[in-house]
Amino acid sequence: MVQPTPRSSACGTAALIVAGGSGSRAGGEVPKQYQRLGGVPVLRRTVLALAQCPGIDVIQVVIRPQDRALYEEAVKGLALPDPVPGGHERQDSVRAGLEALAALAPERVLIHDAARPFVDGGTIARVVAALSASAGALPTLPVVDALWRVEGGCVTSAVDRTGLARAQTPQGFQFAEILAAHRKAAGQALPDDVSVLALTGATVQAVPGHAANIKLTTAADMAEAERRLLREGEVRVATGFDVHRFGPGDHVMLCGVAVPHDAGLDGHSDADVALHALTDALLGTIAAGDIGQHFPPSDPRWRGADSARFLCHAADLITARGGVIAHVDLTIIGERPKVSPHRAAMVQRLAGLLGLAPSRVSVKATTTEQLGFTGRREGLAAQAVATVRLPFDDEESL
Fold this sequence. Notes:
By secondary structure, the chain is of the alpha/beta class. It has two domains: about 15-225, Spore Coat Polysaccharide Biosynthesis Protein SpsA, Chain A; about 230-390, CATH 3.30.1330.50. About 30% of the residues lie in helices and about 25% in strands. The strands form five sheets. Strands 1, 4, 5, 6, 7, 10, 11 and 12 form an eight-stranded mixed beta sheet that branches. The chain has a five-stranded mixed beta sheet with strand order 16-13-19-17-18. Helix 2 (about 70-75) links the parallel strand 4 (about 60-65) and strand 5 (about 85). The radius of gyration is 24 Å and the shape is elongated. Residues about 1-10 and about 395-398 have low confidence and may be disordered.
């Protein structure tokens, strides 16, 4: 459900995400850009990180044609143009993406690796700002380790690191200039897009990058990124609560599972009281209001809607902040229907929606000993607790 902020028809800055590689060095059954990181595909994390930047008007992804099904699953629910089929080499893929964007005539383009899901807003802003006075901009990090030349397995000579820097993405460009440069450089093997532009003699401005903006290349990188998500940052816990009365029907929706009953539930969307409570808990971890603010009950679009859409929207907002959902806990309150026969299905459904291991999903049920409206079997209630890890914001005082 998360998508870039709506823009005007004029395109100032486009983002081009290059996801056309095989990612074979990372191992796994699918290319690294489609592997899950903290329960979320790497590509989705990358798209969401860029989508949250207010200066980006459109996001275009370049993929291998044979990965279309993986792509559609990874970006499900996101408002993106159709992907562009890439070429044999990275340069071919970038050029294909630029040609596809040419119809929009953007002023600037940011070219970013799909395997850099931890890009931060500050880096993006610095790249865009540098393009006001330069044809290109490159985020860099200083080289702090000693550099040595190795030949035949032996150290031979030291390399002076003065003036050296490590390159990151997104690399930013004036669109017309980088498109012309790529067309001219077709067939040449160059390491990155700055190298392509450099052939024209244009100026490229270096801007500070960020150490967290790592590129995931190997299986070890993926494993370390997973550990990092679970160990670093700020732990936030929030709760949610919801109530719905019984109405006509032959089943109730609980945790995305249709549970047979002699009544239905009245309320917002499909009235899944459990998913509504959990959605509010997730929104609470990032202080993003409540479900009614994002999906007003007065809006006819949400009448009868699948509440899983609301839950996934809240999860995407957390992912866009660089966060990871660590654990969720739900308690369904009511005399009937019985939850225990459906508990395993509910856990599996929640785990699938949130990209979590079932061991990180708890579903419980209780009664109020025939007290109150739930005791009188007038409706159901649910309370939820969500635990989320978010990266520390350098601009926040903790």
